[in-house]
Design brief:
33 strands, single chain, alpha/beta, 8-stranded mixed β-sheet, 39 helices
């Protein structure tokens, strides 16, 4: 009689025993929790011979859910049992050989011939065993829990032991009887063969690219799905998707609106930083509509110059395209936060209930980037001392921290200048300045302040590198994962090129084509003997401008009296004066570059101030009475660019002549006056007729009118930094153009309602813009009788942000703003989505000297005046870090602007938050899951084939999962524990795992909306791989992908050993292929 046998699966394996017992007449009966195609592959030769195999799933498996998924704890094990069909956790090595397609196909054919599956659908427990009925013998193997390569001893699992008993008859017969009884029991067991085949078929069928894209997203963002609750998703029952505004949005704006609502609900705040001209206002209006439909109270806080924009959308006006939505938000201005009383937009500021707003939309939120101390204890102390809050502190304390919980939506195309603190100060508004409010929601390893501190430290180190090493790549690789996580959580930023690349723009229309910018370099004048730009600049260099720094002449004994802190901002009187002197020195240079006229006006004004001061000194000297001077009283607002005077215009600082060495001061003032009078004398002959720059502008305008670039469009927008220049241009050009060309001109500066050559014109800031851009401003609805239009608009930077003037196709920068971002913002008025113009032209008027010399000149003026700028504590310069680097940066950007029109995000050599946001992918996935909930059953290792394009070169994109979930390599991978790598066919890494946004963008662009597989491409891959049996090429690329991850880790470890802070070398070992599981891959042919 045959004895029972014990198999330990170490010295003797069950797989070898089965190979001996299975023969042509064998009938196999298995009761187990799961079935793996890899176990079939191992026993393929023997199983192909057997007569039949019956398989019972011992727990409910492949049973269609009768009701909605109930408790997750019942659901997950069932899902895992079903997924084991494609290989268990211990068969990853086999899966990573990429041959599962061929195995699945052979397995499915075998099942159709020889196998039947049934599943227990009751909740009753059933033990597992495997029974083999031979010609004359009968054996049962138990315990037998799963038909997998580990259970049969082919692979090692993670169990301490894996002992199997082999029992002959009569025990084997008894088990067979139990099996047969259950097999026939239709009340508890049902046939699932077709369902199993359906699942296996998915492994070897060709896949649509879109399916693979969503499969990647499903795995990567699965945790996000588990976290999400209906509370943080837009509630469609509010009906906001039926609103007029929602239906006016483009697809990319709808994506942003849904993402904003999600972020506002989860984190209480969001920055929408889409690029200039992408319609942030409309996106924000859809969000406002959503909250108003939920009966929430909304405040829009905007710069005063943008009031008319926001007024239009809530007013019952004929030109309000969304009047039917009946929006009711309040509008106040940034400047209202500095006022205690008075009215604004019909609201009484004294009685306004600041704490009752559920949502604040802050337009141009970068105006709040300098922040202020919001420590609550300090706030109480300041109140006791009577220290006034700045706008930022008032917004935080009166609006956000008071009353109801306030969500904050910020809109800005330029949220970051050159400090991450800019971003922190804006985000801080969302979490009320209390880090614990957002730390919990973000679930980061450290608090928000520390995250920003570390990021700034990394940025400062990077900024000191030589320019050839100062690449975005380098910066990205030095920033930590938690910083990316934070930005991803609370910002949305897309560029124009991103929209064109990754969205279907059929319904959007084209962006206009940007023609190569035209550069003009007019000389100062056509007079032979006259002075030139460089000569004047040298003269300027000899000025002291001591009129603005009386405090430098204070007697030591009197200094203590004047070194008072200025409004808690850390600048003493002398610090502010020096700041003012520097501003005036650079302003003189800027005004010279703007126009001879502006420069002359400023020289005249400064000369007057000096003469007046000398008179005061002389009178005091004669009479020995009492007299005082104030540098800040000697500043004319018109000497500054739009918005430049704020830091110095708020407080006077009188200094008594009795406290100062006025004799030395008078000597220095006289020397300056002499220099200024000489300059004025030299400029006297440069009249408008001899102003070469003005005459060149007139010639350019007439040329444009005679040779329009779009049909008969004669419109031109002329920008200048100074109101004086704008007035001068209007006075010199408007009459001539009206008489010679029959076209109307208008003027807008920040300080006037405007001027216009149309007679009986209803003069207002907004009416001028409406007549200049009648289509974009919907003039027909407000002025249906209007016939005339404005063709030439001369303006200062009061309209360089937030205005849509896309009827115009030609923009002239009459002077070059020293901040390149401003030039791009100006161009953004006409370079907009949905423009009717096919092409647009930018014309830049540069100073008559080499750009390098000009920037160096600016640097010399700034550094001379800078000696200078001290904080109250006397610790150097508060205005900017690394001004030399800043000069070099501006020079680089301005040089580029001579040859091309750039986007803001393409200019910055620093961090670009557009590289980071992943929210649109999550929302993509949510939308897909509503229609395709079955994606959760998809096996790992599937692939699709797409054609290559300019965006995607031939190669393979792998999506991998790091099995050691606790190891996030260097805290740099935003998708951890998932890794994406894109390689070319020859193994070159085209995009590594540190750029997940770029990889997902490419994947989305090549896969989205491709719902059918490409027959020709798939056939080519099948020929190349012998129908999936020979995957050696792709297997080698997979090894190369994993090598690239490991290599980056090793390089980073070495770097970290030689840098400050904790080393990464001892953190998380990764050795190779077995540490990763292949989720899916995309072949690009």
């Amino acid at each position: 009689m045959e004895q029972p046998k014990l198999i330990n699966n170490i010295t003797e394996r069950m797989v070898d025993d089965l190979r001996q017992r299975l023969s042509a007449q064998s009938r196999v009966s298995i009761a187990a929790a799961s079935f793996s195609i890899y176990a079939y592959e191992v026993l393929k030769t023997e199983l192909d011979k057997i007569d039949e195999l019956r398989f019972i799933f011992t727990s409910p498996t492949f049973i269609k859910d009768k009701a909605k998924k109930e408790k997750r704890e019942f659901y997950i094990p069932k899902l895992n049992r079903e997924r084991n069909l494609y290989g268990t956790d211990f068969e990853i090595r086999l899966r990573n050989q990429l041959s599962q397609k061929a195995i699945a196909k052979e397995c499915a054919e075998w099942i159709r011939r020889k196998v039947k599956f049934r599943s227990n659908f009751s909740q009753e427990q059933m033990g597992g065993f495997l029974h083999v009925q031979g010609q004359d013998t009968s054996h049962v193997y138990l315990p037998f829990n799963e038909f997998t390569t580990t259970q049969i001893g082919f692979e090692r699992g993670n169990e301490v032991y894996n002992i199997v008993n082999v029992l002959p008859s009569p025990t084997a017969e008894a088990y067979l009887a139990i099996f047969n009884e259950q097999w026939e029991n239709t009340e508890k067991f049902s046939d699932v063969t077709e369902r199993v085949l359906e699942y296996i078929d998915t492994v070897y069928q060709e896949n649509a690219p879109e399916y693979i894209y969503f499969l990647a997203l499903y795995n990567i963002f699965n945790e996000f799905l588990e976290d999400i609750s209906e509370d943080v998703l837009p509630n469609e029952r509010t009906g906001f998707k039926n609103s007029v505004i929602w239906n006016k949005l483009y697809n990319f704006q709808k994506d942003a609106a849904l993402a904003i609502i999600n972020k506002l609900e989860r984190y209480n705040g969001c920055i929408l930083a889409d690029s200039v001209g992408l319609g942030k206002t409309f996106t924000a209006l859809a969000v406002v509509k959503y909250y108003e439909n939920r009966n929430k109270s909304v405040l829009v806080l905007c710069p005063k110059k943008l009031n008319d924009n926001w007024q239009t959308f809530r007013a019952n006006y004929k030109n309000n395209p969304i009047a039917a939505d009946r929006l009711r938000y309040d509008i106040l201005f940034h400047s209202d936060l500095s006022r205690e009383r008075g009215t604004s937009n019909g609201l009484d500021l004294e009685h306004i209930n600041w704490g009752n707003y559920d949502l604040i939309v802050i337009d141009e939120s970068h105006n709040f980037r300098n922040g202020g101390n919001v420590d609550e204890e300090l706030e109480i102390r300041n109140e006791e001392l009577g220290i006034k809050e700045n706008r930022y502190q008032r917004l935080m304390n009166k609006v956000i921290r008071s009353g109801v919980k306030t969500k904050v939506l910020m809109l800005s195309a330029t949220p970051v200048n050159n400090r991450f603190n800019d971003l922190k100060n804006q985000l801080q508004l969302a979490y009320e300045g209390r880090t614990e409010n957002i730390d919990d929601a973000l679930d980061l390893d450290r608090n928000v302040d520390e995250v920003f501190r570390n990021a700034q430290t990394a940025y400062n180190k990077w900024a000191k590198l030589p320019s050839e090493q100062r690449t975005t790549e380098k910066l990205l690789s030095s920033l930590h994962f938690d910083f990316f996580q934070l930005l991803d959580a609370v910002t949305i930023a897309r560029s124009r090129s991103h929209i064109v690349k990754y969205y279907d723009t059929k319904d959007i229309g084209e962006f206009p084509k940007r023609l190569v910018p035209l550069s003009r370099r007019p000389s100062l004048t056509d007079l032979d003997s006259a002075i030139n730009f460089s000569d004047i600049a040298e003269q300027l260099n000899s000025l002291n401008l001591s009129i603005y720094t009386p405090s430098l002449y204070l007697f030591d004994s009197a200094k203590g009296t004047y070194s008072i802190d200025y409004e808690g901002e850390g600048l003493s009187i002398d610090g502010r004066e020096k700041g003012l002197r520097k501003l005036m020195a650079t302003n003189l240079l800027k005004r010279l570059e703007s126009s001879v006229n502006s420069f002359r006006l400023t020289l005249t004004r400064i000369s007057e101030y000096i003469r007046e001061t000398i008179r005061v000194i002389d009178d005091y000297d004669d009479k020995h009475g009492s007299a005082s001077v104030d540098a800040f009283g000697m500043v004319a607002e018109s000497d500054f660019e739009y918005g430049d005077t704020d830091p110095f215009a708020t407080k006077k600082s009188k200094i008594s002549l009795a406290d100062m060495d006025y004799v030395s001061w008078r000597r220095d003032l006289s020397a300056d006056l002499e220099c200024l009078e000489l300059l004025l004398l030299m400029l006297k002959d440069i009249t408008p007729m001899h102003d070469s720059k003005l005459q060149m502008l007139l010639a350019d305008l007439k040329n444009k009118f005679e040779h329009p670039i779009n049909g008969d469009n004669k419109k031109v927008l002329i920008f200048t930094a100074f109101a004086d220049t704008a007035n001068y241009l209007y006075e010199q050009l408007a009459g001539t153009i009206k008489n010679d060309c029959g076209l109307n001109s208008a003027l807008i500066t920040g300080s006037t309602e405007g001027r216009c050559t149309i007679s009986k014109f209803p003069m207002s800031f907004n009416n001028i813009l409406t007549y200049f851009s009648p289509l974009s401003k919907d003039r027909a609805a407000i002025f249906p009788e209007a016939k005339e239009e404005i063709d030439i608009l001369i303006a200062t930077d009061c309209i360089s942000e937030g205005q849509n003037l896309q009827d115009c196709d030609y923009l002239i920068n009459y002077d070059i703003h020293w901040n390149p971002v401003r030039i791009i913002q100006r161009f953004g008025r006409i370079d907009r989505i949905g423009s009717k113009n096919k092409q647009i032209q930018l014309v830049n008027y540069w100073p008559d000297m080499e750009l390098d010399d000009y920037i160096q000149l600016k640097g010399r003026v700034e550094s001379r005046m800078k000696a200078t700028i001290l904080t109250a504590a006397g610790t150097g310069n508060p205005l900017s870090i690394g001004e030399e680097a800043d000069l070099e940066y501006r020079l680089g950007q301005l040089k580029k602007l001579q040859n091309e029109v750039m986007d803001i995000e393409d200019m910055d050599t620093g961090i670009n938050i557009m590289d980071l946001g992943l929210n649109e992918f999550r929302l993509d996935l949510l939308g897909y899951l509503k229609e395709h909930p079955d994606i959760e059953h998809a096996p790992f290792g599937l692939n699709a084939v797409v054609g290559s394009s300019s965006l995607a070169k031939p190669g393979v994109m792998f999506v991998l999962k790091n099995r050691n979930n606790s190891v996030n390599i260097d805290l740099k991978n935003l998708l951890h524990p998932f890794y994406m790598v894109y390689l070319s066919d020859d193994g070159e890494v085209l995009c590594d795992h540190l750029h997940p946004k770029q990889l997902l963008d490419i994947m989305r662009a090549v896969c989205r909306d491709r719902t059918e597989y490409d027959h020709a491409l798939c056939a080519a891959v099948n020929r190349e791989t012998k129908d999936g049996r020979d995957m050696s090429h792709y297997s080698q690329l997979l090894h190369a992908a994993i090598d690239s991850i490991v290599t980056i880790k090793q390089e980073s470890d070495i770097d970290s050993l030689f840098s400050e802070g904790e080393t990464t070398a001892l953190r998380g070992e990764i050795t190779g292929l077995d540490d990763f599981e292949l989720i899916t891959f995309l072949i690009i042919k």
